[in-house]
Amino acid sequence: MSRRIDLLGVDELAEGEMRMVWVEQTDPVLVVHVNGEFHALQGTCSHEYFELDRGFLTAGTLTCALHLSRFDLTDGEPLDPPAELPLAVYPVDVVDGRVTIEVADGPLEVNEEA
Ligand code: FES
Question: Model's pTM, two decimal places?
Answer without folding.
Answer: 0.96
